[in-house]
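Q: what sequence does this backbone want?
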């Protein structure tokens, strides 16, 4: 039966699996709602760009509500469960031009877009629909996805181009020195950039832990995904067996050699590597990691327990798609940890702004209520010097440590206030440098989580 799928422009990570479903179900369509009022909207930068590369633009009904009062997240709330709940039809509305109200939008989505007179499926349903198709016929489904993404047996020109790129990236390693097993560690920083699911963001400290485990003697490591302030580049500089492919989509190479399909060519790069090596992908859950699993590469996605948004992804494992969850106790980063703690207490995960507001409030509190001498630092020849900017930076270190340590307290306990005051009292007995070092130790994976991650990866090694 034909399906129409509702996708908001801020749901860019779902574009990859959605395109795969369209490859398998030739009558399916995407309703893509663009809303540039939403800061996370990536309709043009990611979703439509990828659909065009796949040759699917003709099967996308693009609705731009950027100039309307209605917001895309409000529309998502009004639409997402209607198909599943067999909601009644909306009031049919007649209007000229683009829809400008929720009623007009619902009328257009329900009555005008094929299949007409029906509610769309939510984009979150694509995971299950894909899994069903792979369960029915794994080989045919996998072939259709690979064909859509232009990945199969590589022709000679494509192989030469991909070898050229590999030769550049692996120059310091030497192609002959690449180990049998390649671990690709994906960095996800979209939450910190204002996107959804801050609790699923990576931590560079956590990435370093995985690098330090595999790079010395066990595997060649590729660092991929989001970069910030050269952190992945710095990690790669420490070992000939760590290759930096961070934000490779910015490389001019792809547009020079694969004009029109640069993103698909990057998917092909990893699949091409698998022709000679065992390639294993790992990272916090993301849409890009889904593509690696759908291409048949061993993929482990990390997700904190409990993660209500992730249960649907288990369908891939059920269908033997090699996209396997490793459930961790806690996210490796501080902002992600804070968001996950909110989720576990029954509060929706805050936005990044929520974290910054909490941190700013703590810094303001400290600057107002704690003697400035606690934020002095040593100047030349050990003299005590005060500097407002440095004091505020030191106060932020204490504030972060205070927030993290308070997570172990029960706010409903009768001694909560006294325990919270004791945390601050103990922190202020330590120097900013000591607190900073202790805060650094809080970043990264718990050792039990790291053990679980590395064991899962090693279990798939080619010997």
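A:
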């Amino acid at each position: 039966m034909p399906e129409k799928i509702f996708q908001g422009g801020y749901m860019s990570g779902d574009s990859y699996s959605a395109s795969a479903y369209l490859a398998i179900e030739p009558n399916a369509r995407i309703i893509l709602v663009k809303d540039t009022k939403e800061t996370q909207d990536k309709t043009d930068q990611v979703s439509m760009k990828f659909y065009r590369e796949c040759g699917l633009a003709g099967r996308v009904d693009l609705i731009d509500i950027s100039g309307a009062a209605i917001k895309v997240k409000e529309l998502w709330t009004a639409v997402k469960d209607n198909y599943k709940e067999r909601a009644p039809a909306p009031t049919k509305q007649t209007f000229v031009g683009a829809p400008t109200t929720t009623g007009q939008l619902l009328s257009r989505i329900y009555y005008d877009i094929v299949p007409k007179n029906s509610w769309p499926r939510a984009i979150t349903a694509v995971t299950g629909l894909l899994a069903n198709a792979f369960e029915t016929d794994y080989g045919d489904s996998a072939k259709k996805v690979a064909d859509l993404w232009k990945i199969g047996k590589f022709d000679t020109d494509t192989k030469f181009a991909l070898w050229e790129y590999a030769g550049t990236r692996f120059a310091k390693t030497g192609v002959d020195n690449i180990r049998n097993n390649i671990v690709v560690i994906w960095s996800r920083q979209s939450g910190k950039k204002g996107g959804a699911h801050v609790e699923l963001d990576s931590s560079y400290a956590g990435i370093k832990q995985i690098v330090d485990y595999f790079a010395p003697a066990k595997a060649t490591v590729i660092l991929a995904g989001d970069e910030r302030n050269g952190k992945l580049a710095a990690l790669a500089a420490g070992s000939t067996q760590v290759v930096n492919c961070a934000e490779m989509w910015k490389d001019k190479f792809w547009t020079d050699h694969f004009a029109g399909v640069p993103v698909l060519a990057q998917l092909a790069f990893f699949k091409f590597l698998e022709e000679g090596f065992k390639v294993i992908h790992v990272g916090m859950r993301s849409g890009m990691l889904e593509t690696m699993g759908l291409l048949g590469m061993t993929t482990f996605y990390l997700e904190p327990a409990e993660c209500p948004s992730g249960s649907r992804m288990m369908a891939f494992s059920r269908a033997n798609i090699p996209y396997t969850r490793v459930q961790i106790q806690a996210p490796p980063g501080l902002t992600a940890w804070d968001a996950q703690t909110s989720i576990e207490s029954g509060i929706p995960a805050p936005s990044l702004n929520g974290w910054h507001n909490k941190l700013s409030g703590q810094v303001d509190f400290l600057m107002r209520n704690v003697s400035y001498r606690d934020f002095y630092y040593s100047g030349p020849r050990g003299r005590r010097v005060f500097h407002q900017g440095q004091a505020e930076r030191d106060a932020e270190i204490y504030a972060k440590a205070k927030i993290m340590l308070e997570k172990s307290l029960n706010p409903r306990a009768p001694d909560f206030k006294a325990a919270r005051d004791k945390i601050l009292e103990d922190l202020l007995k330590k120097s900013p440098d000591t607190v900073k070092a202790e805060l650094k130790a809080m970043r990264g994976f718990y050792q039990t989580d790291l053990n679980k991650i590395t064991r899962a990866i090693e279990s798939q090694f080619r010997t």
